[in-house]
Amino acid sequence: MGRVTNKVAIITGAASGLGKADAMLLSEEGAKLVLSDINVDEGKRVARECRNDALFFEQDVSKESSWPDLIATTIAEFGRLDVLVNNAGIATIGNIESTSTDQWHEVLRVNLDSTFFGCRTAIPAMSKSGGGSIINMSSTTALVGLSPYLAYSAAKGGIRSMTKSIAMHCHEQKNGIRCNSIHPGSILTPMVHNALETLAGIKLKEQEDPEATRKAMGIGEPLDVANLVLFLASEESKHINGAELVIDNAASIGDISR
Ligand SMILES: NC(=O)c1ccc[n+]([C@@H]2O[C@H](COP(=O)([O-])OP(=O)(O)OC[C@H]3O[C@@H](n4cnc5c(N)ncnc54)[C@H](O)[C@@H]3O)[C@@H](O)[C@H]2O)c1
User: Fold this and answer.
1) Which of 8, 32, 175, 196 could make a disulfide contact with 202, Cβ separation 3.0–4.6 Å?
2) Which of 18, 112, 248 to mutate to test the pocket of ligand 1 (most atoms within 8 A of CB)?
3) Distance of alpha carbon 240 from its chain centroid, rounded?
4) What residue numbers bound the domain in which 73 lies?
5) 256 falls in which pLDDT band (50, 70, 90)?
C-alpha cells in the first residue's frame, strides 16, 4: 500500500481494459487521478469505483485542443502533475494491401498523435512539479512483424521511438521527468476479445472456462500490465528512463510457430 501516495496521475483511455486496471491499482496505492476517455458513462463509473480522489474528464485524445484543458483541470483540482499514462488506443485490422488511407490516418491519430500531444503538453506542468513519469503504451507489434496490424504496428513503432527521444530530451533538460514505453503482448481486454473473434473466430464468452482458455492461449490479464505501470509511476523506477519494457511472457522472442 502507498507506493504512489499523493502522486497526481492522468490516465487516458481509463474507461476500459488496461486503463481501468491502471486506475484501480494506482488509486489503491494512494494516487489522485484524472481519468479521461471518450466513453463518458464507463469513465465516470471507473472514477466512482476508485478508492482515492479521482475525477473523470471527457476527452478525445486525438484532438490537440483537448490537452491544455485536461492539464489545466488537473492542476486546478490537485495542484500538480506527477504521472501521465498515455494509454488510450485503438487497433484496426488491415495489412499493407487492405489498409485504407482513412484507416491509416485514424489509427495514427488516436495512438501516435495523441501521445505526442500528451507528452508535449504535460512536460511543462510536470517540470513545475519537480519531475515525473510518462508511461507510453506501445505494443509488441512495435517489435515484431504482424501482417494484420499494419497501421497499428506503425503507430506503436512511432511511440517506441518517440519515447526514447523524449527521454533523452528530459535527461538533457535535467527536468526530473522520465519517459518509458510498455510493450504488452496479448492481454485480455475488450480490444483483444474483438481481435480474437475477428481473426480467429474464438468467442471467449461461449467457452466453458474462459479463464482456462486465456491461460492456454498465453494471454495475460490487465493486472499484469497495471503492476508494471505502478512500478514506473513510483519512485522504485527512478533510474529507468527511455526503456522499452516488454510484458508478454516471452511470446515475442521465440519461434511463434511452436
Ligand atoms: N489488450 C492488449 O492485448 C494490448 C496489447 C498491446 C497494447 N495495448 C494497448 O493498450 C492500450 C489499452 O488497450 P485495451 O486493450 O485496454 O483496449 P480497450 O479497447 O479495452 O480500451 C481502450 C480505451 O480507450 C478509449 N479510447 C479509444 N479511442 C479514444 C480516443 N480517441 N480518445 C480517448 N479515449 C479513447 C476507449 O473508449 C477505451 O475505454 C491501447 O493503447 C492498446 O493499443 C493493448
Assistant:
1) 196
2) 18
3) 17
4) 8-185+222-247
5) low
